[in-house]
Amino acid sequence: MRYSPEDILIFLEVAEAGGVAAGSRRLSRSQPAISERLQHLQQALGEPLYRRSGRGIRLTSAGESLLPLARRLREDLTEVELWSAHRHSLQEGELRIAASTTVANYFLMEHLAEFRSRYPGIGLRLKAGPLARDTNWSDWDLIFTEEPLPASALPSSLRQIPWRRDEIVAILPRDHPWVREGRRSVDWPTVLTQPIVWREPHSGVRRRVEAALDAAGLRPQYAVEVTGIEALRDAVAAGLGLGFGSVEALDKVRWPLASMHLDPPRGLFWDLYLVYPVAPLRSRALQALLGVLGLAI
Fold first, then answer.
1. Are 252 and 110 in contact (CB under 8 A)?
2. Alpha-carbon separation of residue 52 from 18, 45, 55, 116 (angstroms)
3. Rounded Cα gap, residues 86 and 280, in angstroms
4. CATH 3.40.190.10: which residues of the chain?
5. pLDDT tens across 187-210, in order?
6. Domain HTH lysR-type: where (predicted)?
7. Which pLDDT band, with edges at 50, 70 and 90, does 1 fall under?
């Protein structure tokens, strides 16, 4: 026979009130209903917890032994209720976010800052960097990527959508001849007449440029490769070659470099993707962050 935490709490109220009738009044329950629950509890435990004494009760040795455990249970359940209230009101909680370095640094930080200003009690754990293919995606509340993840890699509890679209442009020194000529755009064959500074192979911008060149039937040279967007900036500024970057990222850092549209008149664009859990698996904190991101999903 099983018993519930409520049965233990009923016993506690009766014991502290000194009788079944008094305990029933404290619980706003009928005395027969309370007596029935106490009888069920004693049967489940296999021994009596109290004996009647006049108009009240006297605890047995088993009842005396159970009493401090029952008080501890009440304290624990009170803490659970307080914890639940804090999470319901977004006073506490944690969000785990994974994002590529570029997305984290140039697209996400301002949204996270706004979220923290609204909900300072919610902790944010951000993993910024390359997203390994063997990552357990279910370990994260939100995942921001520079290209879509294979559908076969995602569990059924996760969804994926394009989140942001941005233009990729060529970046070059301000004293470059093309800049002095007043050019605003450049086609792929002309781009390949120049030395190119490439980001590391897992860079989303690099892969998008490589895909565009491949679609145009062109094969680039890989003379200079750097790791990180800051290294790219320094290499281009030093005259090692032209590079590629996103318009929004360049607007934020305001580098002393010039930019040009690629592949006119279409331009070159890329989509950033968001992976998120289905609605029943989202916390209130996660739903609030989606609101800050302007996403009604």
1. no
2. 10, 18, 7, 57
3. 20
4. 93-163+272-292, 166-271
5. 999 999 999 999 999 888 999 999
6. 1-60
7. low
- Whether the Cβ atoms of residue 50 and residue 57 lie closer than 8 Å to each other: yes
From 32, 31, 52, 42, select the one nearest 7 (Cα to Cα).
42
User: Right CATH number for 166-271 from 3.30.1050.10, 3.40.50.300, 3.30.565.10, 3.40.190.10?
Assistant: 3.40.190.10
Structure-block tokens of residue 30: 């009928």
**Which pTM does this prediction carry?**
0.76
Question: Is the pLDDT assigned to residue 134 strictly greater than 80?
Answer: no
The phi and psi torsions of 99 (rounded to 5 degrees) equal: -150, 150
State how far Cα 75 lies from the chain centre: 31
Point out which residues pair with 122 in neighbouring strands.
93
Burial of 221 (0-12, 13-18, 19+ CB in 10 A): exposed
CB distance 54 to 16 below 8 Å: no
Give the percent of the chain with pLDDT over 70: 100
